[in-house]
Design goal:
about 230 residues, alpha/beta, Spore Coat Polysaccharide Biosynthesis Protein SpsA, Chain A, about 25% strand, globular
């Protein structure tokens, strides 16, 4: 069963408050996105990569990002859509394999470990859908629009969803197409299966698998990478 990695990197990164989109910002000498691609290249279960980027960035990614990377796997560059959900669907539709596995990952999560990608893929082969996540450690408050605490929520059984998220092709395509037809929008791909009543397995991820959203995240990612190098 072939596995196709859809790396979604079509966002504008407005919360970073920089002119350069966050996926292209340097992290230890190379773009954030390059780290992500190199990691997926190391995963033996991944057969090829579909890189989804803004339409206007396609040539830049081919000429400036991909040309300088030593990657063995075939990479197809696909134009993204108006929303992340649209971009993921564009990536799925670029796959000509109805019996494979699709593993979807945010291009700005550069520190995911290949072994976690592999585990997620293998569980999706068995169960149909699998995601990474981490259990909540902090107390959760429900707060009003006027910054007043309404109540404290139970954190037991509450997890923060991460990527990668892996699915059997037929399940994730059907879920995305149904969401598109219904006008339903979600913040992650697993939610689209959940609304169809399809169970999704959760594997313990890592706090290092952070999503680069703010400048502080970039500093933290640099620290994680520097620390990992000292342990080699």
């Amino acid at each position: 069963m072939a596995t196709h990695a859809v790396i979604v990197s079509a966002g504008k990164g407005k919360r970073m408050k920089r002119a350069t989109p966050k996926q292209y910002l340097p992290l230890q000498g190379i773009p954030v996105l390059s780290h992500t691609l190199l990691t997926f290249n190391q995963c033996p279960e991944v057969d090829n990569i579909i890189l989804v980027v803004p339409y206007n960035d396609m040539a830049y990614c081919r000429d400036q990002i991909l040309s300088g990377l030593k990657i063995d796997k075939a990479i197809t560059v696909v134009a993204g859509g108006a929303r992340r959900q649209d971009s993921v669907l564009n990536g799925i539709l670029a796959i000509d394999d109805k019996c494979g596995i699709v593993v979807i990952h945010d291009g700005v999560r550069p520190l995911v470990q290949p072994k976690l990608i592999s585990r997620c893929i293998k569980e999706a082969e068995i169960h149909g859908a699998c995601i990474l996540g981490i259990p909540l450690q902090d107390t959760i408050k429900s707060v009003t629009q006027h910054a007043r605490v309404q109540k404290t929520l139970l954190r037991e059984g509450m997890w923060l969803a991460q990527t990668p998220q892996a699915f059997q092709y037929k399940l994730i395509r059907e879920a995305h197409e149904k969401a598109q037809n219904d006008g339903f929008e979600a913040t992650d791909d697993a939610s689209l299966l959940e609304r169809m009543g399809i169970p999704v397995l959760v594997l313990a991820g890592s706090t290092h698998n952070l999503k680069i959203t703010t400048k502080e995240d970039l500093i933290l990612a640099d620290a994680f990478l520097s620390h990992s190098k000292t342990l080699i």
